[in-house]
Amino acid sequence: MTTTSAESGRSRSRAAGEGGSRRRGRGSSGPASERREHLVRLAAELFAEKGFQATTVRNIADEAGILSGSLYHHFDSKESIVDEILAGFFNEIMAAYQRVVDESAGPRETVAGLVRVAFGSLEPHRAAITVMQNDWNYLKGMSRFAYLTRSEEEVEKIWVDALASGQQRGLFRDDLDPQLTYRMIRDTIWVAVRWFRPGGRLDAEGLAEHYLKVMFDGINVHPAATPES
């Protein structure tokens, strides 16, 4: 797969934090790269809980058990941290979506696979999805986050192409707009990040399968056809 615009964003964010020395934090020690990853995880949880705009550098430093100034050995700003979180999310989900497209036997299998990937991202990328829902308009106004719009367009094209292909093959209704259908699917999946909790009655895989039943079969009862007399 070719390098995406999200990868460029991740490279920028990484470059901003390279060169940090070894630091010790709350229950954590190791090379600068390990410390950096630890800080990203802590910040991600805060962004998901408090929101990106409401989270301060001091909040992140306090959570890590370090002084605010020490955080700048790894990142030049909290924008650099969320940049790394969002770029990593888009890189992973685009690669997973592309594997689905490459390996699927047809449009229905492709759409089902895309749904499973999306639900599967709710737990590992909870912070990124939450930030996109809450702070998308704020972030996309900054030039460093221009790749967000381009990455979302790439994601949308994968979905729309799969839906349109299904229509062309007579598998999906031809009176539905593929772009609008994708956006409705996307929004109903991503909003689940607000209430989905790992360890509940359904895991992400079970949630995806339930969603596919509703999406493909609807909620109406379909009586079995009676044999002709």
Automatic annotation (TrEMBL):
Q: Membrane-crossing residues?
A: none
Question: What are the start and end residues of every segment in region (Disordered)?
Answer: 1-35
One GO molecular function term of this record is:
transcription cis-regulatory region binding
Give start and end of each HTH tetR-type domain. 33-93
Q: Does the keyword Cell membrane apply?
A: no
The superkingdom of the source organism is Bacteria
Keyword set, alphabetical order: DNA-binding, Repressor, Transcription, Transcription regulation
Task: Specify the DNA-binding region ranges.
Answer: 56-75
Has UniProt tagged this entry with the keyword Protein biosynthesis?
A: no
Q: Which InterPro entries match?
A: Homeodomain-like_sf (IPR009057), HTH-type_TetR-like_transc_reg (IPR050109), HTH_TetR (IPR001647), KstR2_TetR_C (IPR041490), Tet_transcr_reg_TetR-rel_C_sf (IPR036271)
What protein am I looking at? Answer: TetR/AcrR family transcriptional regulator
State the organism of origin.
Answer: Actinomadura decatromicini
- What lineage is on file? Bacteria, Bacillati, Actinomycetota, Actinomycetes, Streptosporangiales
